[in-house]
Amino acid sequence: MHAKNRADRTDRPSRTNRTRVRGVLVAAALLAFAGAGPALAEGSWTSHISGWGPGSESRRWADSDRDDAVTTVTFQGCATGNNDFKDADLQLYKDVFGPDKAYGHRSNHCDTSGWGDQSSGDYYFALEGVRSGAKLWVDTVTTRY
Fold first, then answer.
1. pLDDT average, residue stretch 89-118
2. Keywords for this entry (predicted)?
């Protein structure tokens, strides 16, 4: 009977092991909770640009203004017809009845351009011009709002 009790004791987890398991479970729960925090931006989309000239417009997106995220457009992998890309002149617009409201030009050097936190509404950006080339190609365009 003495041997059976010893076997029973070794089959049960020790107090130290139970404490470790409990600690791991608590840590995992805390990490999951920390990861469930608010998103940094209400929304985003990714696309590309192929042969845009001045006046070309992006797709529209709806910003509900449920956060304080700034509106940004990021270009990666930029080129012009002569492969001498310098920058692209972008303008953010709010799609409204009548002439669309402009929010200012930004010179994008194949990086990120920002326009601050915008009010709710439908937005798009337009290519106003390209320095060193007539057409613009961008491998990845990421818009966050």
1. 97
2. Signal
Please choose, from the candidates 101, 34, 39, 103, the residue with its C-alpha nearest in 3D space to the C-alpha of residue 66.
Answer: 39
Instruction: Specify the residue for token string 């076997």.
Output: 7
pLDDT for position 14: 54
pLDDT score for 83: 81
Is residue 122 a contact partner of residue 43, using CB atoms and an 8 Å limit?
A: no
Residue 79: CB atoms within 10 A of its CB come to 16
Query: Mean pLDDT throughout 111-140?
Result: 96
Kindly report the pTM of this predicted structure. Answer: 0.71
CA distance linking residue 78 with residue 84, whole number of Å: 9
Enumerate the β-bridge partners of residue 52.
Answer: 136
Q: Whole-angstrom Cα distance, residue 92 to residue 113?
A: 10
Give the domain ranges of the chain. 2-35, 44-144
